[in-house]
Amino acid sequence: MRIVTARRISQTFFLLLFLWFCVVSSFGMEWWQLRGWPVNWFLQLDPLVALGTVLTTGTLYAGLLWALVTIVLTIILGRFFCGWVCPFGALHHLVGFLGKWGKSVSHRVAINQYHRLHSIKYNILLFLLAAAAGTIIAEAIRLALAGSAVHWILIAVIVCSAAVAAVRSFPERKRTASIVLALVSLWAVLGFFAGAGGMLSATLQTGLLDPIPLMQRSVNLVLLSVADSNPGVLSSSQRYYEEAWVIGAVFLTAVLLNLKRPRFYCRFLCPLGALLGLLGRFALWKITKKSGDCRHCRLCEANCEGGCEPAAAIRTSECVLCMNCFQECKHDLISFGTQPSASGEVPSPELSRREVMTSLLSGVALVPMLNLSGKFARNYDPKMIRPPGSLAEADFLRRCLKCGQCMRICPSNIIQPAGLEAGAEALWTPVLDFRIGTSGCQLNCVACSLVCPTAAIRPLSLDEKRGRNHFSTRGPVRIGTAFVDTGRCLPWAMDRPCIVCQETCPVSPKAIFVREFFSTIRDGVLEVRKADAFTVEFRHAGLPPDRLATGDYYLRRIESGERERRLIVANTAGTVAVRADQPFSPVPAPGDRIELQVRLQRPQVDVKLCIGCGICEHECPVSGLRAIRVTAENESRSRNHSLLL
What we know:
By secondary structure, the protein is an alpha+beta fold.
């Protein structure tokens, strides 16, 4: 079997496996739904996911140990993940192949040439990692201030390792090392005077451009949702996502750019490719040339997927191991081995010190500028409700990959990707929208907490979520509190009976209770024409036929001053009938006035019992802006969000 054929089989297998894992993340009872498949395996293989969460949290989530496999194999083989495993890379490869189908060799050579802008992905990588590293730096400063010699030695080792890595990875080595040391020193000094507080916090934004979370999000929220338009295929009902068109536009743009240049995203934008390129420069095995006696036919560059220029000095950091050059060379000059390339190598990306400095400083400056919005203080957005089990907001944003796994698996379809209204840092993170789905947050569902790959939504048991057994003293997990908008509520504002929110409240005892109130309906004082013990006929009534026989409307005599109300059981436009066990005695005389009243059960919320499940908001019959709405006040994950100051 030819090596290129083996690569294509590998790409096809992993692409189909990735899509299968997305499909089986659908909630349901079918044999292919939720049956213990390792649906997060590709995310766990992603070294950028592991590195980003380590930088932001200082810990490595257990499942992300799989990333060590990718790292070790990359150091041995080079960027094999990009060319053989990555499902997003396989999709780019396919579309790029179709884009150059039938083009001349010279045209294919031209579009496959290395471009100076290939360095953009390294700038993106440095920017994202710098934004994620604040927590580590803050902890280092805290340990340094403790004065322990061991801590000083540890910090010195880390700084020196960073400098050595920069020296070996980028040109202008001395200047690069000086820049790295200067930046670390400046950061440390500023952190010292600022107390290592807000200036050195971290944010995890790698998921915006990391190809695995990007494709996971796009498939989960866009491609599979389109398939859901035929209910019963993947989900029992059509699923909706508010930001789907933006996510889909980003995905389609990234894919269609391959028609202009093969693997456009991989060459210019992919931060994971940049990270693997830096690791791959140390690879033991790599694409090399056996001899410098090249005929310069450039057939090897006609189908090169990485723009690594195999006909000249090979750029090892750009090689994605597509093996096309190995197969295309008619003179058997290209091999895959451990020996240095006879035509020379360019192991490092072409990054200037200005680019390195700009990327790092921009990433460092991003976090304090984002924190100026006060989203972690009193200016938090009460409409941003996180799924049950979510960590406190700052910790949540240090872990969330924006992968969409929790959104896809939610059986109620209420977990939605946040837009910019939640702040740039929270873009495409999960928030709850109780209007868009099929219900609120179900009491017996913890699916989102069990599928999160980084524990941004920590695993919950049903007992903990509902506050039972060992968790009875702590009480149930609260994701917010419901509030009645009396200006829109039917019993409060419109004198119309409604107790839907109270009836659907799932907690026991119910968090929503009602207070009875009798109100005279509009034009509800009428003059009697004639009457008997059970029926009254009015003058000029104009009542809606059969509309008063719902069990909520009553008659009360005014002249007699009696307080007894008689339930209406039937009515026409001019007459009403009362219950058989509530006859009039004495019978109203002609000219007497009768008051028509409606019994209203006005809902109120007991904040001590409300868990913010949102079922009441979803079921509220007031369309548009609901008359009862849930906000994040009183959520369990943050004491700062308690209802009362």
